[in-house]
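We emphasize that the prediction below concerns an isolated chain of 274 residues; any contacts that depend on oligomerization or on bound cofactors are therefore not represented. The input was used exactly as deposited, without trimming of termini.
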Amino acid sequence: MIKTLILLLYTCFLLLSLSSKAQCVNTEHVFQGGELLKYEVAYNWGFIWVDAGEVSFKTEWKNSGYNPSYYFESYGTSYRFYDLLFKVRDRFQSEVEAKSFRPKWFIRNTSEGGYEVNNRYDFDFENQILYSKTANSEKQLSEDTLSLTGCTYDVLSAIYYARNINFTNYSIGDTIPIKFIIDGEFYELYIRYIGRENKKNRNGKTYDCIKFSALLVEGTIFKGGEDLIVWVTADNNKIPIMAEARILIGSIKAYLTSYENLKYSIIEVSEKNK
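Result of the prediction step, given as a token string:
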């Protein structure tokens, strides 16, 4: 089940980026090099919650002269006691141009229950081409050239782009679509803006949050429909605090557990009301 937990966290972050209103260029950056976010994921079946894994996200600044960029890396792992049931070691990497915030390349190297997946995408927005290399435990390396149209992101660049969105531009009930690529295929989903809500995290701290529901595709994990809920801090950091979803059997949650080197101070509700 840890594979499902890790997938939830990446899915909930990715779906936050659906609020881009088809704008590809964003020059405001609410994060900075050196930022590190960590999350714990848990699974519930009946009345029992089990902490089964964790995911981290880090940011680095790459000053390459005339075209500086951001490097993003995320690592997901199951806990040792859960490795005996389903061992997960997932690594995602991405680099984006700082000025345009368009992705340059993306790499996925994952091992989940012994099933390995390796992907690489190289983005060429000038010529509207995406070069794809994909392989897994059942399929040898395959190379393809895909048409790149409109605003297209990989999972990591979508996460960080989403945090720069001005959410005050949306009304309650708004639905916003996005196009993204994952596992060599393009997808379009949407989120629905629910509004603002004070949310208490597992650490006992309460935050003023922006709340969304997200449309999920029916399949082997999710039932389909708007069964994913995400809470993002309403301060300048726009950090996902918590996400939860119902699945075919039980439910899953992801919690923010720690953060380092934020660009802005994170604001708790108790502090905001002083």
